[in-house]
Write a structure and sequence with these properties.
Structural class of chain B: mainly alpha
Order of helices and strands of chain A: HHHHHHH
Oligomer: heterodimer
Distance between the termini of chain B: 28 Å
Low-confidence stretches of chain A: none
Largest sheet of chain A: none
Low-confidence stretches of chain B: none
Number of helices of chain A: 7
Radius of gyration of chain B: 21 Å
Radius of gyration of chain A: 18 Å
Helix content of chain B: over 70%
Number of strands of chain A: 0
Number of helices of chain B: 19
Strand content of chain B: under 5%
Largest interface: A-B, 52 and 52 residues
Chain lengths: 218, 487
């Protein structure tokens, strides 16, 4: 593959990633948001495979494989399992209206592109538009976490945020050190595990969503 | 020899954590706890001597220089004090049912896993390893914060894990950007190593480093408890078991500050020192201002101490922001002083809470009449925290002020001084009411346990010593650490 082809593919994948992010923000059912984040992780895995073929960096194959198994299959499956197990509220309760969040999201995307357009030559160190897309995904993930009151949606936002970082990290032309990427994935898995246990524990003791508790103030 | 020590240090708490899982006996667990912390302390002293004679030591992704040593020394001293304190605290907590006797081993295992991850954040030279260890501290300590298992603890733990995980994903993004800038100059190999990046730092692209530093500042700033990302801190500090609150406030937020300092040095070399200094000043001032009203109206003593930590990380950020050797030296000294003093305050508050069975400062009254030594130590800690001369915090705050005046940051100085005066009055009012007067009916009359007192006296001795004089060897470490930052 020529560098131009790779760049085009990465840019197209970036556009699709932003689209899945919009789906996550617009989702009214938790299960839809989980499907969207799984699709997003799948796109990240494809991006990894494309970059692995293009650069001949074998580590990227492993990372793409791990992303596919863990983030596109196992974690979404765990989230679905928790939704079924809790079986109480499937509706997402936004703190501010979904349409307002979408408008904010547009602003964030435009700002991210504007910000990275202002950067100089270093943009060559990162393939195509991976930098603005990565910044936008990271910030939008945080937006989801901040504007949703259910624990599971907050976890979805967290995974989307991590996806943004991964996308940029993969696209750094030299590739990230392998051991670091694996360490980061391991941390994400552990964090998800601990969060899931907390959600179930609170549900079993007080029958409330952990993210909805608000006794600690002042 | 010294290089191997770099790997042995994080291994000690890791092996201890596994060892803890083999027994259920509280006495044996406590003995292993104290023993392991003492070993960690002794090994660090050996390492400190090696660094003093042979300069920075590095092996693989780990490295220790004088800057890291300042934080490492604070870490091992506080870990030892916490272990000693835990012996007596735990006996009492098990008796009243706050801690379940059958799950103690997982508590100790988690504490040591937490310590191990913090040791790695201090020793990490590779910025990726630094991030991984930092997320490791979040995971281990989140479980510890919710350890009591009641609803409030879990609420605090959830808020903590969500806020800090979002926070440090920003930190990871910043790290990736710095790495991208470094690969552009030096290629992929070693472009994550802080010491390697520092060699080429002046040639890095300033635009991307600027964005990277802001991401890192927000990211690790969340973990450090800087406002406005501090939302997790008061809840976590107030809900965690007292020894864990001490580790959070005394060490963990300092580890995040060290990470910020590492990136500050890179940013200062790439974009000039003025840019990171301004960012640090903004976050530092915001923290000091935001913490003040909450300190005044607080009723829960552990929340009070939590908000107070926000003020003090703000002061450290101000010192780093004012910069120069005086400001940086003052900031590093303040890290140590605040760590020691705040640990003492949490210990004293923890024993008072155990005695009265409440965290409400309206219930804790007349402590001096029922526990004179503990009350005296609480008063000493509060006086020092408030910034009273000749205690150690006064000395480092004075240095930060001098640096600010020297660089002509008059507005920042004015706001800082006003807040410090208000907090001084507020804190002494709160603690004065707790210590003096008639004890309430809730006060327990039992004798003071020896082990918490021993832990507190150890810290109080260091606090008083650092106020009167800084030992020459420690002064040398601080001087060389300042050179690492200022260059």
């Amino acid at each position: 593959m020529t560098p131009e082809t790779v760049q085009t593919i990465i840019d197209d994948l970036g556009a699709l990633l932003l689209f899945t992010m919009i789906l996550i923000i617009a989702a009214r059912q938790i299960s839809n948001a989980i499907h969207a984040v799984a699709a997003q992780s799948l796109l990240i895995a494809i991006a990894g495979a494309v970059l692995a073929t293009a650069t001949g960096n074998a580590d990227l194959w492993v990372i793409a494989g791990v992303t596919l198994t863990i983030k596109a299959i196992v974690l979404p499956w765990v989230l679905h399992w928790v939704v079924r197990r809790l079986n109480v509220r499937r509706e997402i309760e936004p703190v501010i209206a979904i349409s307002a969040t979408l408008a904010l999201a547009v602003v964030v995307v435009v700002m991210s592109f504007h910000l990275s357009a202002s950067l100089g030559t270093v943009r060559q160190a990162i393939t195509g538009n991976a930098l603005p897309v990565g910044i936008a995904l990271t910030l939008l993930g945080v937006l989801v976490m901040a504007t949703r009151k259910t624990a599971l949606t907050q976890m979805v936002g967290l995974f989307a945020s991590e996806n943004g970082i991964f996308f940029t990290a993969m696209a750094v032309t030299q590739g990230m050190p392998f051991i670091i990427e694996i360490g980061v994935i391991l941390d994400v898995i552990l964090a998800a595990l601990v969060m899931t246990i907390m959600v179930l524990r609170v549900r079993s003791t007080v029958d409330a969503d952990i993210a909805d508790l608000d006794r600690l103030r002042g | 020899m010294a290089e191997t020590l770099l790997w042995v240090l994080p291994l000690v708490p890791t092996v201890t954590a596994l060892l803890m899982l083999t027994t259920r006996d509280r006495r044996i667990l406590s003995a292993i706890d104290v023993g392991s912390s003492a070993v960690l302390f002794a090994l660090t002293l050996v390492l400190a001597r090696e660094v003093a004679t042979g300069g920075p030591q590095a092996l693989g992704v780990l490295r220790v220089d004088d800057l890291g040593l300042v934080f490492l020394l604070l870490l091992v001293v506080l870990t030892l004090a916490v272990s000693i304190y835990t012996v007596g605290w735990l006996r009492q907590a098990v008796e009243v049912g706050n801690m379940k006797a059958e799950s103690l081993r997982s508590y100790f295992a988690l504490v040591h896993a937490f310590v191990a991850t913090m040791v790695v954040t201090v020793l990490a030279d590779n910025l990726g390893v630094l991030w991984i260890a930092m997320e490791g501290t979040t995971i281990t300590s989140a479980v510890l914060i919710g350890y009591h298992g009641h609803q409030h603890g879990l609420e605090a733990a959830w808020k903590y894990i969500i806020v800090t995980t979002i926070g440090i994903s920003f930190g990871l993004f910043g790290t990736v950007l710095v790495y991208a800038a470094a690969t552009d100059v030096m290629g992929g190999a070693g472009a994550m190593s802080w010491s390697a990046i520092m060699k080429v730092a002046p040639t890095l692209d300033p635009g991307i480093i600027r964005i990277g530093f802001i991401f890192v500042m927000v990211g690790y700033g969340t973990k450090a408890g800087l406002a406005p990302m501090h939302l997790w801190l008061p809840d976590a500090h107030s809900q965690a078991p007292t020894p864990v609150s001490t580790l959070l406030s005394g060490i963990l937020i300092k580890c995040a500050l060290l990470a910020i300092i590492r990136f500050q040095t890179i940013a200062a070399a790439a974009c000039g020192p003025a840019f990171p200094a301004e960012v640090l000043l903004v976050f530092g001032l915001t923290s000091v201002v935001v913490a003040t009203p909450f300190i005044l109206v607080q009723q829960n003593i552990k929340r009070l101490l939590g908000y107070h930590s926000i003020e003090h990380v703000g002061i450290v950020a101000l010192g780093l922001g004012f910069g120069g050797s005086v400001g940086t030296y003052g900031a590093l000294l303040h890290v140590v002083n605040h760590g020691i003093t705040k640990a003492l305050a949490f210990f004293a508050a923890g024993t008072a809470i155990a005695r009265y069975g409440s965290r409400d400062m309206h219930v804790i009254r007349g402590l001096f009449a029922v526990a004179p030594i503990g009350a005296t130590l609480l008063m000493l800690a509060a006086l020092s925290l408030a910034g009273m001369a000749p205690f150690s915090i006064f000395m480092s705050e004075l240095m930060v002020l001098r640096a600010g005046i020297g660089h002509g940051h008059w507005v920042a100085i004015a706001i800082f001084l006003a807040m410090v005066v208000v907090i001084f009055a507020g804190l002494l009012h709160h603690v004065g009411a707790m210590v003096f007067g008639e004890p309430t009916a809730a006060a327990g009359r039992e004798a003071e346990a020896w082990s918490p007192l021993l832990g507190m006296l150890l810290l109080a001795a260091i606090m008083v010593l650092l106020g009167l004089t800084i030992p020459a060897s420690f002064d040398g470490i601080l001087q060389r650490a300042t050179e690492v930052v200022v260059g």
